[in-house]
Amino acid sequence: MLFRSASGAIVDGKGGFDPLNGQTLGSRGVIEAIRDARKDSSVRAIVLRVDSPGGSATASDAIWRELEVAKEQKPERPIIVSMSDLAASGGYYIAMPADAIVAQPATLTGSIGIYGGKLVTGGVYEKLGAHIEATTIGKNAGMDSPVAPFSPSELAKLESYLRAFYTDFVKKAAASRHTTPEAIDAVAQGRVWTGRQAKEKGLVDELGGLDRAVALAKSRAKIADDAEVELVAFPHPRGLVEMVSDTLGRRQDAAVEQWMSTSLSADELAALRTLRGTTALFRRGEPLALMPFSYVR
User: Fold this and answer.
1) Which of 297, 291, 80 is nearest to 204 (CA)?
2) Which tens digits make up the pLDDT trace of 196-218?
3) What are the contacts of 73-76 at 24+ separation with CB within 8 A?
4) Total-model pTM
5) Residue 89 bears catalytic tag
6) What pLDDT digit, counting tens, does each position of 43-100 carry?
7) How many Cα atoms occupy the beta-carbon half-sphere of 206 within 13 Å?
8) Which of 60, 82, 89, 176 is catalytic?
């Protein structure tokens, strides 16, 4: 039985650790783990532990697709998602292919929504004496440029793009929960729910922890309740070179984090996080399915 932990803000690529924002979840590592599990005939079920506020919409969609492929390839092999502290926006997106979703009563989940935009820094450049000009080909080719605000045409294009992704998000959620897009939209629109509320609204199947998710995986894989199963962590344990490299990288990250905590005041750290924000983890022009900092009671 595969067990994979998916923790942190979802980003394209490898992922890692950010001194200001903490752990990040790279889509590449999750996809590789799912592919390894798909090729392993001894894997009877897949349990994905999600602890993520979401992140990149495109990276979330890539993980969703890989889980869908695993589901189509071997329908009798159940996929169970266990939600930890939070599994919202992109975190909920990657949970949708599951045959069943198990959440804690206080898990922050839902937040079916998307947003996008950009920080305009052209005024800063002007104040520094830098005048930037760009040559583009195409009506909206420069819409992601940080130099100037969106033109009416670019803003309309962005809104159309975000609306299309949101509509697709809702449709996928409706298919996952065996309901209608209208019913999902009524509890979506970026709103965040507790796990107990999400169960009442049909966004999750059961309340419980990882043990309940494993028990459910055994049941759906037709494994006896009293049978012992091996939880195989994917990705597989790394070699010596990879472990040494990761250790050195973590030491560097820890050193940066230690320097900031000792050199900057709490107010300065808060201001730095506000200025840099989680959006600094993502690529320019990338839409975000990222949990807002509020929830519906």
Assistant:
1) 80
2) 999 999 999 999 999 999 999 99
3) 73/38, 74/38, 76/221
4) 0.84
5) yes
6) 999 999 999 999 999 999 999 999 999 999 999 999 999 999 999 999 999 999 999 9
7) 18
8) 89
